[in-house]
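In the previous chapter we treated chains in isolation. Here, by contrast, the input contains two separate entities that must be folded as one system, with a combined length of 762 residues.
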Amino acid sequence: MSAIPASILTDPVARPSRGKVGMASLIMMESCFFATFVVAYLFYIGKSATGPQPRDVLDLGPVIVNSIALFASSYTAIRSFRALAAGAIRAFEGWLLLTILLGGYFIVGTGLEWYGLITQHGLTITTNLFGTTFYSLVGFHAFHVIVGLVCLTGILVLSLRGHVKPRDAGRVELVGWYWHFVDAVWVVVFTVVYLVGRDGGTLTP
Amino acid sequence: MTSLPATPHRLGERRPWTAVVHEWATTVDHKRLGIMYVVTGMIFLVVAGLEGSAMRAQLTFAENKLISPEVFNQLFTMHGTTMVFLMGMPVLLGMANFLVPLQIGARDMAFPRLNAFGFWLFLLGSILLYFSYLGAPGLDGAAAAPDVGWFAYAPLTERPFSRGNSTDYWILGIMVGGFGSMTTAINLIATTLCMRCPGMTLMRMPLLTWMMLVVAILILTAIPVLTAAQVMLLFDRSLGAHFFDTQNGGDAVFWQHLFWFFGHPEVYILILPGFGFISEVIPVFSRKVIFGYPLMVAATVAIMFISLGVWAHHMFVVGLGPFLNSLFAATTFLVSIPTGIKVFNWLATLWGGHIRFTASMMFALGFLAMFVLGGLTGIMLAVVPFDWQLSDTYFVVGHFHYVLIGGLLNAIFAGLFFWFPKATGRLLSETLGKWSFWLLQIGFTLTFGPMHISGILGMPRRIAYYEPDRGWEIWNQISSFGVIFQILAVALFAWNVITSLRSGRRAGNDPWDAWTLEWATTSPPPEHNFDTIPVVGSRRPLWDSKHPEDPDSSYGA
């Protein structure tokens, strides 16, 4: 290859970061996974043979507060990563802790919602198609939030031990991508379950 | 090509066997992982081939009593599942693992540890599936192995109809292996986009690398849908959910939609790497550049998109109604356009070339012939009324074996003969290879050709018995007779591999006078692949270095 003139060898395009491409691919894969459960939810709206129906048991109030907490955590995550890139480690840790608390609040809120549904309304995954699709879709989302929380907590612990430096900002931001993705999924899940599915829950013969 | 003095073979040095096992078990080297994938896949080819042979033995005579219907159900389920998930996927992902970093001038995959993780997940998944023979009979009388068919239609897979744990093993084995495939796909995308050597623009990448990139994207689109569907089925079976439980409002056809939304792209996940092998082998042995490189790339990407919209052609007999049936028939016809473009480009590459009939090239030509035949019966099946007549008959079995065995297996052999010297440093025997080739084509034509006729005569798939007065017996006997040739071909190939590893001719760096970067390094390549990261100026960097007076780069390719 030595015979090739040097002028045409230079490839002006810099290669993208493999971390970013890897995370983007993971998010694409996860999107397809969630899309399947969303389709299942939409497909089975109103097809439950027995009650309870979504309209009777889904309480919008606490869910909206939960959602606000989760959406706010995306903002605090962005602030946190910006602080890290700027070298403000303490601010990074503070915003990160707030992100984790907001995410944790969402999980606790979901847990309380489920507790109410199970104990007061007797809705479990075996009750009817609504229970089947509801717990699967919301549950898989909550599982992903928990995975995100584990990652964020891991970063916080590492940072408190002094292992996270501003040069790691790019890597930490990848976890942020995942966190924003989990948030974006909630936009879809909330719309499908609590807005579209709640009122469409009539029994069709 | 001249024989070199014997030096200790790199992979066969005298060391304690524990050290060798340890080295392979802990490796993160993409080449070793690739070899382990391919070897595992070829072992499963033999396993699934024997399962298929057992079925052919049972069907040789009408009212044969060799194999019970229960065991027959397990055989066709395990045969199909093994061939798709345990043979096709690992062999192709293994070849991708081995070749993609070499072809783009990288030292390894983007995430070497994730790569090893993917392989071990795949192995765990395949062991889980076969462990069902020991672990599945949860209840008395329950099946010992999955027996619900490779597409596992609901509601047969629901707890009341499939007792014991065999279906759960089917779900878990494939799900775990699927996670392995998805991690490998993420790795392939990141490797292809981020690890290319200087000068290796996207439109200079070898076509195999291009096709593996597209395959990786398809894997990330299609397999999560199967995983989600399997999770739903697992919830139905283990937690009492109702996704596919028809007695509680669940919809069995919904499973079919989800399965085939995965299942049809899966066909392209399997065949596109085959296209990639052919696109590397045919130019080298025709001594010509590939015809219409940009169109090949475009056709590959087009196949990726179209293949995501054709799934319901597997469901014409379900009763989707004339609108959906026509729609999916139309998209199915559409996918034959980019595929046809590819076939014509390969033919145009052959045209006027200085063709070398090596074993690899013969398998590639075998692929062309058989794949086109399989494609033509595919177009016949895309015609809805024709499909109504022949759905779930042996005509369909014949069709997809032409595509996947005549097509894909020929392509895999073409690839194995082509790159075996790169992986091991030794050439496979050409004579034995050509024997394998002819035995395989004869056996294959005898086995799968008559299936079209028995199918047209009305023989359904998945039956263990038939009456003698149906006129099917002779066609089944020809089919079974062909199996002998196929077994001989594969056995001869195994013998070829074993003897060539010991005493095959030394390959040297570049035994075929080829043009892509994997031939620039030693055979087998060192762990770091290239001593210096190569710099490329065209699609055929080795041509450029061999012919400095007339490099491709001066044509702007």
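The mean pLDDT of chain B is 93. Chain B is about 65% helix and 0% strand. Compare these points with the single-chain example from earlier in the chapter.
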